[in-house]
Inverse folding.
């Protein structure tokens, strides 16, 4: 399959191939109108190759998007509401050899195979590159292997093991295990594989194409949201229409693994990347610095904005009233970016994303079962699970006979690195009194002063004094003189022999 296909001949071949598929009913009504043939319709004449075939789009002259959007799904990972749906991105490189990079979720395999068949246009598939084994990208692998029995699978050893765990799919006789920095020549294109453990699973790698400068980045730089025909971030108003979902995606899916993302960003700094091709959401081919800067902030737990989020948990309105009062006072004192959230009615993934964005967080909770109101406690535990750091908190508690939420919130927040507190805990009894409003005004003044003092919550650069050992499989860091022989990595379960000194 290494013959050169002249561009014009290739175009004809593409038309004929699509016509054949249309005749079999494989393409659906989008390829040709009724009664039309490839010759009469010439659907691709003067248009990008494969235009009109499902969700196929050209990424470059010989790289194609064959991913599919899912607008039926309600909950991503059965946890995160995604009213705008989600895209499962997959790419094909047509060179002397053909390569498919990642597949899709089981919900969209029909459209995926229509796309893939059309783009391969009768050619065989030589390689399937598996950057990430989570089933939203790997559910179609076993069918790919059946359809293309000659295809070899390029992945990390751990990806092969996880593939077998999920799908009882043993690829040992057709696998090419990609070590860090290994390359694969497709002809004109050469792929270089870069391991990216815990972005977002331990087996993850990224693939860099030297011709296009495309980094196929797995989940990194992805976003919730179905694609709407637009493939590239520069074809949409990303900041207005996509950033909130991109932030919510990153913070909730990968947010815990900031150190691992930072490690990948450092590797990326030495690579001439021209495009970022993630497994979800738009492809980046312009203004890459903008999204890289966002990732640097999110992964270093640096607030994006000098802003205040006020989160309240209230049953009969007293705590809500106090929260509204603080927000009004802040606004009156000139803080433009203040947003108020009812913790009972806002999905926790929205709150997590907003906590990553804002520099200051006001938490107002009733006392419930002698502790923190359950939805508020869930939110705080989720903040801890996502490793949020370097934030200023201001606390308000309410209780009709024995207020106790403040100290208990503080005990959770104390476990977050870089936590600071602005103002004292304000305690109200049932509903705020005039004295309470004075205390809230003092809290608001302290927050304003903190904001005016500038972005004090900078990244805490880690300057370890102890020896650090890195898990080769997942990037987990163990600190100590030696890794004990019986030690098991708490993330991926690797033994002590898999750790090596941090460079
Ligand atoms: Fe989109 Fe971690 O899978």
């Amino acid at each position: 399959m290494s013959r050169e296909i002249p561009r014009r001949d290739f175009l004809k071949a593409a038309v004929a191939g699509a016509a054949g598929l249309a005749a079999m009913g494989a393409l659906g009504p989008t390829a040709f109108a009724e009664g039309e043939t490839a010759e009469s319709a010439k659907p691709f004449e003067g248009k990008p190759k494969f235009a009109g075939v499902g969700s196929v789009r050209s990424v470059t002259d010989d790289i194609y998007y064959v991913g599919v959007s899912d607008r039926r799904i309600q909950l991503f990972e059965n946890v995160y509401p995604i009213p705008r749906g989600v895209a499962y991105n997959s790419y094909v490189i047509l060179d002397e050899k053909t390569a498919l990079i990642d597949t899709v979720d089981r919900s969209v395999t029909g459209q995926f195979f229509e796309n893939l068949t059309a783009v391969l246009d009768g050619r065989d598939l030589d390689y399937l590159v598996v950057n990430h084994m989570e089933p939203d990208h790997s559910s179609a692998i076993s069918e790919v292997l059946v359809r293309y029995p000659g295809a070899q699978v390029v992945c990390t050893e751990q990806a092969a093991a996880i593939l077998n765990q999920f799908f009882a799919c043993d690829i040992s006789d057709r696998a090419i295990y990609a070590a860090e920095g290994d390359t694969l020549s497709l002809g004109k294109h050469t792929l270089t594989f870069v391991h990216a453990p815990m972005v977002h699973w331990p087996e993850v790698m990224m693939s860099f194409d030297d011709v296009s400068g495309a980094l196929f980045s797995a989940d990194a730089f992805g976003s919730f949201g179905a694609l709407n025909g637009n493939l590239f971030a520069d074809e949409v108003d990303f900041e207005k229409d996509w950033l909130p979902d991109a932030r919510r995606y990153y913070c909730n899916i990968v947010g815990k693994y900031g150190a691992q993302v930072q490690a990948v960003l450092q590797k990326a700094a030495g690579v001439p990347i021209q495009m970022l091709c993630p497994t979800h959401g738009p492809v980046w081919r312009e203004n890459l610095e903008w999204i890289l800067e966002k990732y640097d902030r999110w992964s270093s737990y640096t607030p994006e904005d000098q802003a205040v989020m006020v989160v309240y948990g209230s049953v009969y309105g007293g705590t809500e009233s106090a929260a509204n009062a603080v927000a009004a006072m802040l606004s009156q004192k000139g803080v433009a970016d203040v947003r108020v959230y009812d913790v009972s009615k806002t999905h926790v993934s929205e709150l997590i994303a907003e906590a990553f964005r804002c520099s200051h967080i006001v938490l107002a909770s009733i006392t419930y079962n002698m502790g923190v109101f359950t939805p508020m406690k869930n939110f705080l535990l989720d903040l801890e699970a996502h490793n949020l750091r370097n934030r200023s908190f201001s606390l308000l508690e309410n209780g009709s006979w024995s207020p106790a939420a403040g100290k208990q919130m503080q005990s959770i927040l104390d476990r977050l690195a870089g936590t600071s507190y602005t103002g004292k805990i304000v305690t109200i009894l049932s509903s705020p009194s005039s004295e309470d409003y004075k205390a809230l005004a003092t809290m608001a003044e302290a927050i304003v002063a903190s904001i005016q003092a500038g972005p004090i919550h900078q990244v805490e650069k880690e300057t370890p004094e102890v020896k650090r050992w890195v898990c080769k499989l997942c990037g987990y860091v163990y600190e100590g003189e030696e890794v004990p022989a019986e030690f098991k990595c708490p993330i991926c379960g690797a033994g002590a022999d898999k750790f090596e000194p941090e460079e």
